Amino acid sequence: MPSSPEIIDISRPLQNSTACWPGDEPFSFRLSWKMADGSTVNVGAIQASVHTATHCDSPFHYDDQGPKIEQLPLDTFIGPAHVVDVRDTTRWRERVEQLDFSETPRVLFHTGGWPDTSVFPDPIPVMELDLPDWLADRGVRLIGVDVPSVDGIHSKTLEIHHALKRRGILIVEGLWLNDVPVGRYEFVGLPLKIVGGDGSPLRAVLRIGTT
After folding, report:
1. Strands 78-85 vs 55-57: parallel, antiparallel or unpaired
2. Euclidean distance between the first and final Cα of the chain, in Å?
3. Distance CA 45, CA 16 (A)
4. Which of 51, 70, 80, 119 has its CA 20 to 30 A from that of 190?
5. pTM (predicted TM-score)
6. Which residues pair with 44 in a beta bridge?
7. Can you give the C-alpha Rg of the chain in angstroms?
8. Residues with catalytic roles
């Protein structure tokens, strides 16, 4: 039997120390039932913003008329992806110009802008405003970043969010790409079926040897 492909977990941990957007609902996990206290089982409960740690945005997050999370096409969240290192440049396009997106319509940007999940970063690196159109013209359907947002922390207009939405590109934020070599992988990161949701946590992974 062939060996299973190697799996790289690119999700940030969800724990009580996980930093959230300032003013948003922090992540909290507790055991509401405990075997140590005489219950027959342990039962956990969570409370958090859906935009905590590794997550995807639905367009409804920044557009009242946009699709909600359960309405997004699941196939966009599964399939070949490029991991691209943009840690030492402000022109991200320079790092993707030579890539072939015809069969790999997803790109994950390693910015290095959120090195400690327990500390919310400010400022963060962001892509240039003309990059969404350039990517969409080449068939890209999903982009991911390793920071909390594709726009700057203090942005009120969310220009990059809207530019991506206009071209039908879905957004994943808060990835963990440290120690992931640049290259081509299979990305898997499905949102929860939260009816009416503006976003969802993801358990995002990369699989090696399947593309």
Report:
1. unpaired
2. 19
3. 12
4. 119
5. 0.96
6. 31
7. 18
8. 61
CB contact set of 73 (below 8 Å; sequence gap of 6+): none
DSSP string, 79-140: EEEEEEE-TT-S-GGGGTTT---SS--EEEEE------TTS--SS-----TTHHHHHHHTT-
Q: Which 3 state secondary structure label does DSSP give 163?
A: helix
Bridge-based pairing of strands 7-9 and 142-145 is unpaired
The tens digit of pLDDT for each residue in 150-203 reads: 999 999 999 999 999 999 999 999 999 999 999 999 999 999 999 999 999 999
Q: How far apart are CA 188 and CA 202, in angstroms?
A: 9
Whole-Å CA distances, 111 to 23, 117, 119, 148: 24, 14, 16, 11
Domains annotated on the chain, with CATH = 7-12+50-207 (3.50.30.50)
∠187-169-80 over CA atoms, to 5°? 20
For residue 78, give both structure tokens.
Answer: 């599964």
